[in-house]
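User:
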Amino acid sequence: MDMNTIEEVVATADPAAWRPGDAWLAGGTVLFSYGSTTLRRLLDLTAAGWPAIQVDRGGIELAATCTIAELYALPDRPGLPGNWAALELVRLCCDSFVASFKIWNASTVGGNICTALPAGPMTSLCAALDGTATVLEPGGGSRQVPVAELVVGDARTSLAPGELLRSVHLPAAALNSRVAFRRLSLSNLGRSGVLLIGRLTHDGGLVLTVTASTKRPVQLRFAGAPMAGPVAGELRRALDDAIPAELYHDDIHGLPQWRRDMTYRLAEEIRAELLGTPSQTASERA
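Assistant: Predicted structure:
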C-alpha cells in the first residue's frame, strides 16, 4: 500500500460530503493494492450501517457494503424461496475471485462493481440477474440504472463525480430462473479471461451475459415461445453484431482473439445446456 497523499479519513455515506480528491471506501482491497497519487481524502462507508442483505418476495437487495463472505453465505439463509434456482450463481461467482478469506471478508459487492474491472465477478452476477443499482447523487436525489449499464468500460463506470452506489436489487423473476455458468482462465487460479452466464426467462427465452472477455458487460436477449430460443448460427451472428473486435479485452490474462473464440465456444455450450439442443458440430460451423 502506497497512499501517502491521504490527509483525512471521513466516516460518511452522504454524497454531499464529496469533493474533488475524494474516493469512496468500502472494502478498499483494490484501492489499497494499487494506491493513488491524487487522492486527498477517503470517505469511509464501513460504518454506514446498511443491512448487507435484505430478502422479500420481490427479490434480494444487496448493500454496496455487503462483503463477499456475507454474500457467499446467502444460499444457506433460512426461509429463502425454494424456486430461486439462480442462487447457485452466487457461490460460483464468489469463487471466481480466486481470493483468500482475508479478501472475502473485506472486499464488497459495490466495490467490485465500481472498480469496473472486466473480470469483476460481482458485475457478472448482478448483470446476469438483471440487477438494478440504486445510485445516490450529491444533490440529495437518487437514480436507478441496470448493473449491465453501470460498467461502461475497463475501469470505467457511468457514475458522475460524487455519486455513490447504495445497493443492487436482484428481482425474483430473474432469481426464479434456470441458469448456466461458464468461466475460463489461462491458469487454474488465474483471473477470469472469459465468464458467461445464461438464463432462461419464464417464456423460454434466453438471456446471455458476456463478461471478462469484454471491456464491459454485453447482454443478449432472445425470444422464447414460439421461437424456443436461438439456433447455433443465430447465436453466433448475434455475438458478432453485439461485440465488435475492439470491445474484446486485451491484457496478460488473455488475448482478444482467444477471448473471442472462447466466448463463442462457451456461449454455444450454454445455449445447448439451457435449450436442450445439441451443440453445433465443426462441419456445421464451417
